[in-house]
Amino acid sequence: HNLRSFFGRANYIYDDRYVVNASLRRDGSSRFGENQKYGVFPAFSVAWIVSNEAFMQDVGLVSDLKVRGSWGRTGNEAIGDFQYLGLFGTTNYGARAGQSPSNLANPDLQWETTTEWNVGAEVGLLDDRVGIIAEYYNKDTDNLLLERPVPSTSGFESVLANIGGIENSGWELTLTTVNVRASRPGGLEWTTKLNITDNENEVTALYQDQPFGAGFINWVEVGQPLGVFYAPEYIGVDPETGVAKYADLDEQGNYQYENGELLWTTFPGSGDRRVVGSPHPDYYGGLRNTVSWGGFDLSAFFEFAQGAEIYNAMRLYSDDGGYFLDNKFSKHVEDYWTPENTDGRNPSPSWFGSTGVWVESSRMLEDASYIRLADATLGFRLPAAVNNLLKTQTARLYVSGKNLHTWTDYVGYAPDNHWAGSGSGSAVLGTDFYAYPRARTFTFGFQGTW
Question: Would you say residue 370 has pLDDT above 90?
């Protein structure tokens, strides 16, 4: 992989109040076709430091105030090498070595480009004991690099191509507070930093405007967020028979009713699929607290996400009513329908799958909201006597942990632990198919300067 870049930048600051920045770069990547290797990416930003204006000097509450805006274009080449070439790989048949096509050529592959603009403000209050950064942004991505389905006669399922566009827009907020400021060296100090982001995502263009599926139940369609879940809608258990109930849709994808009752089926067809959820959270962020006193320091970081859903594809085998001979989740097999338990939460088990439990549907969708204690560190700065003994200027002992605990209703390993199998495309989002669990780690250490 080779990358060749040319870069230029200019900055101008007038009277410590007005700031202008401009840059221009031209990048060439070996990952694209012969006539598509180079992209040009300009950027421009302006800022007004309002707190340096004369009329702000007597405003004691505000210690810093800046408003800013920017526009720019960036490129993405995060694909594998030689994707634009037709490749062959080794294979064998009948114990004889050979070669077979391993990659479908696409010489038109080019840079995926994102054009972004944003406006924001930075505010410092009470001698910077309170800091606020607020920003609104809009990102338009063109020539989106995605796997596009191709006819099976090609010998492949898909080909990597620039097939459309996507828009992301939203706001970000960062709040920093000095809750307790040390009045002397070694005194108590406590700071907090909270950041939160709300992002809206929408597919704006596709190859021939044709929607397509990806992974298990992900779906890519103009006007929808990228990788929404598209599947039969599970509506419960039939109390009379114990079979799974799925909404029976008409040809336009609408619900059907008879005598005021929603029509349902146990074995939905391809026409009974609809958008049933999204892998994208309503908002996400993090919270860090840092406390120091004497020689001790303590830092803890929590991360959170709210509103996303995850497709627990493990349940196709572990919550299938006995159709597959795999280990089962006790939470999903204990409360199932029987003639004596007609209010069971789960459909009746069936060796032959006749109750429709194993259908790829919204039944396997779960709430992916969570709060996680992502990391925590406790340290102790050793006293001067120890420094003299060790011949160090400073010395510190610490213990830290990562991925310490997650609060969530998700029954899998982790609500943000996504993997849908090898070869999954970038539109396969929010799917957990036996993803390897994230490790919990602890570290004990010593830091010193000499």
Answer: yes
